[in-house]
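Before a computer can learn anything about folding, someone has to put a protein's shape into writing. The outcome of that step, for a single protein, is printed below:
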Amino acid sequence: MSLRIIFLGTAGSLPTNERSLPSIVIQHRGEIIMFDCGEGTQRQMMKAGVGFNRKMIVFITHMHGDHVLGLPGMMQTMSLLGRDKPLKIYGPPGIRTFIDAITSTVSFWLSFPIEVSEVSVEGVIYDGGDYEVRAVWAEHSIPSLAYAFVEKTRPGKFYPEKALALGVPKGPLWSRLQRGMEVTLPDGRVIKPSDVLGPPRPGRKIVYSGDTRPSDKIAELASGADVLIHEATLGDELLERAEEEGHSTPSGVAKIALKAGVKLLVLTHLSARYSGDESLLSEAKKIFQNIIIARDLEKIEVPLPRGSEEL
């Protein structure tokens, strides 16, 4: 089952020739899950081949312009291209007022309905069927959220030979067992899923920090994550400034990744002061090794956990 991360924008606050403002998408079963929507996101979507009329949900971390000002342009582009599917938008308090202000003051029409939800409490904020999105409060200069995309645990591998040996005929009863439900045979025997299935298969977890200082809450949210995408706005030499402004440095992020036991750390939201990224990478690698620095339009495939492959 394919799960792909696309980095549409990886800059912090100010776009550069190489980096657009913050936005990433996760492609999951034909669905688009977007985190943040900086200016110009719709153009990056075009360049990355991200469709404008698919089922799509947007999660905004906070109400700073570089994370939210791309929404009006993206919505107008979607309308011009004839989108008809609803667009769901989640964000902190203030996101509804922002959307209402745009749609009531800017002269453009929408070809699709918008559903806006303000997030005020931590925990599971969206259930996507086979995945869920969780939120915790980050530590920034204004209220800011961090999000986790978490696939739900799936039933284990189905063993047909065990089902046949127990007298379960091929057909609908097999399907029920594969979905984790008990079945009752004509002779009254109850067959449990554990009788014919292997161990449950864990899903994948991707965590996105938004803007934040290093946070114990984010470390907890990212525990065991396949990918932690974390801002590293300023280098270690500007640690004091980063703390004052509610941002992170590479070393601080690396400590969070180590504490959380993540598989891959991706640094993003880089200040325009850094034309290269080798110094930021080397600072983080003193603490945590499996790190990359995100680049615009880069794509990462996230494989299923070992032993959890599709069958």
